[in-house]
Amino acid sequence: MTTTSLVRALGRTLWCVALAAACTTRVEAPHAPVALTVTVDSTARFQTMQGWEGSSQFGQDEAGFASWPHAALVDSLVDLGIDRVRLELRAGVENPVDWHARLQGRDYEQWRKVRYQTVNDNADPQVIDTAGFQFSEIDRKVALLVGPMRERWAARGESLYVSVCLVAFVGDRPAGYVHQDPAEYAEFVLALFQHLQRRVGWVPDAVELMLEPDNGTPYTGTRLGGALVAVSSRLRAAGFTPAFIGPSTKRMDAAVPFVDDLLRVPGAAGLLTELSYHRYGGVSDATLTAIAQRASQLGVRTAMTELIGADVRTLHDDLTKGNVSAWQQYTLAFPGKDNGGHYFAWQDGRPVMGDRTRYLRQYFRYVRRGAVRVGATVADSASTGGMSSVGAESARVTAFVHPRTGFVTVVQTPAAGAVVVRGLRPGRYGVHMTTAAATGQALADVTADAAGALRVTLPAAGVVTVFAR
What we know:
The structure is a single chain. The protein is an alpha/beta fold. The chain has 2 domains: 108 residues, Sandwich (Immunoglobulin-like); 317 residues, Glycosidases (TIM Barrel), CATH 3.20.20. It contains 11 helices and 19 strands. A 9-stranded mixed beta sheet has the order 17-16-19-14-13-12-1-15-18. Strands 2-3-4-5-6-7-8-9 form an 8-stranded parallel β-barrel, surrounded by 5 helices. Strand 6, helix 8 and strand 7 form a beta-alpha-beta unit. The longest helix has 22 residues. The N and C termini lie far apart (65 Å). The N terminus is likely disordered.
């Protein structure tokens, strides 16, 4: 072979080698640096979730409400994941005059003056005079909202949890207020249960003893304990066995003292199901931990049942420090400014999701009743010498396992970047994220490998939910 022929043959060989390499080698784009590593520990188990709650105010007494799309609101609430409703029972329901029917939507200031005024149905708390109780406000809430929500959840194979809560902002020394008498309190609640049983065929799942007893009511922990003993006995005798929730104090640091006084009442021990609190004062991590510890000692659940303006940071603290099984921001819907007091705002005759609600959705929609919170930690890659775009001190993670649907992991992250999640079951996972620009954005599904690890690259700061398909 001549020198020229040898060079040509060698050239053809090198060209073929290069072509073969190009046809068999896949060039991958470089991965973004791992910003966070989340580790889920399913052996560490905490509270079992009981529901995402809202109070039964949805703008029903506002001008123009009749023309608003009620069904669209119900669908929006169920889609959000609200599966628990606080049905408020005002003290003024016990009255021969139906002030709500007379004044609703007509004279709000007059309605405010009379809605907590009680007139005893008769002198005997053991005998209910049905003419002495006016349930028109309750009936309207049930017809327009609670009943339809129950139907929507039933169609999904789930249920709506309804708690009835006595509201009595009557002052410390109210004239004529009758429910301070435990027997009269029990009669009042029984009258509602019997009314709903006759009218709609179901009764509430729980009784929340009193809304904010430390906020302009005559109730102490001891009086709540007397009411609890009386109402439990009266309802049981009538065939009703609801759960009992309390004390729902306005101040977080009042919750444990109220419960301790409640439990000193003979017969009260063992009746409470859920230790509830609000967040309008006395808020601290130490107090939140003390609530969780006291509830654990008593063998009861905890619940945060109101804070106007609560957001995902509040929710994270309540879940991980207070071990809450149920959580509520406040009302379901209302017209006007988005102040974190309602999940949806009525705007131009339609329900519009609030900005805080968009992020809460990442928990409410995916973490269903029966899910158990499990251990979860987050580490900054900088701790292992890697590049980090997200500070671990700003990132928050919670994880849950549902016996039917599997793992759900929720990460609050203040920047874009890659997140590795370990400790999951192998399989396919959906990834949905809410950011400043998008609500519930669906990212590409990912697969947890045989070791239970997966990787997600997040486009922006926000809250991301990784859930088993």
